[in-house]
Amino acid sequence: MESPSLAPGRQLRNLIIYLSIFFVVWALRATVLYPIDENIKAISDAWRQVYADTIRLLIFVLPVIIYLAFLAKVKPLRYLYLNTPVNRKGLLQASIVTILIFILGLLFDYILAGEGRHLSILIPSWQWYQIFLGLPMAPLAEEILFRGFLLRAFQDFMNFWAADLLTSALFVAVHWSYWLYSQGLHMGLVMLSLRIFIIGILLGYFVRKSNSLWPSILAHILNNFISVALLFG
User: Which of 81, 177, 196, 227 is deepest in the core (most CB within 10 A)?
Assistant: First the structure.
């Protein structure tokens, strides 16, 4: 396993600085600068999607590549598990666990929905830009940062499960700036945060068992699709 050629103390300091800058920049983008999205959307939904995906790549992905290549001095693709061979046995094990937890999640949602509710399938009438840009780009960028970079980096200072829990907590935290900006504080955010936290843990488990980031990217895309296609009503 390739590791950064930095002293542990310096590596930890750089990581803390990196995270601090990232969260400040992303919070500004998701709040103060978000009206730019609305202005572009008023002109064209497609261009708004292109803009949002470009900004996400510039904030989530490009700095990771630069950090790994020039500061940590490692090969970014290999460090991020983007060109490592897939462990098929581990992938199968992780898939089974994830499917079981997903089924339990649906049962939990059914119980919360109450009597008389039923599961329905709603396939949104997405436009081409939402299918080819909106659906895959956010999971790709988020997985590169969280499960590719941070999960791997944290394991230099703690065991896998501690790193996975910390990464999942940060994965939840990155959503909060936009949630608070667009919805305000309400109890529904607690349940949503718990769901995303569990999903983050599972995605980290996917990476560990499969030795590749691609299964977690695909699982993340599938989860995002299911979250808008399945509902209780």
Answer: 81
Tokens standing for residue 209? 């068992």
Task: Tell me the C-alpha distance between 43 and 31, whole Å.
Answer: 20
Distance CA 26, CA 182 (A): 15
97 within 8 A of 201, measured Cβ to Cβ: no
Residues 206, 146: Cα–Cα separation, whole Å = 13
Block means of pLDDT (10 residues each) for the chain, length 233 residues? Answer: 69 94 97 95 90 96 96 94 94 86 72 59 64 83 98 96 98 95 88 90 94 93 77 55
Q: What is the DSSP letter of 85?
A: P
pTM of the predicted structure, to 2 decimals: 0.91
C-alpha span between 143 and 123 (Å, rounded): 25
CA–CA gap between residue 59 and residue 28 (Å, rounded): 11
Rounded Cα distance between 209 and 205, Å, is: 6
Q: Alpha-carbon distance 109 to 144, whole Å?
A: 29
How far is it, in rounded angstroms, from Cα 148 to Cα 157? 16
Q: Tokens at residue 218, please?
A: 């695909």
Q: Which residue has the tokens 């590169």?
A: 144
Task: Please give the backbone phi and psi of residue 49, each rounded to the nearest 5 degrees, phi first.
Answer: -65, -40
DSSP calls for 141-155: HHHIIIIIIIHHHHT
For residue 2, CA distances in Å to 7, 67, 181 come to: 14, 15, 39
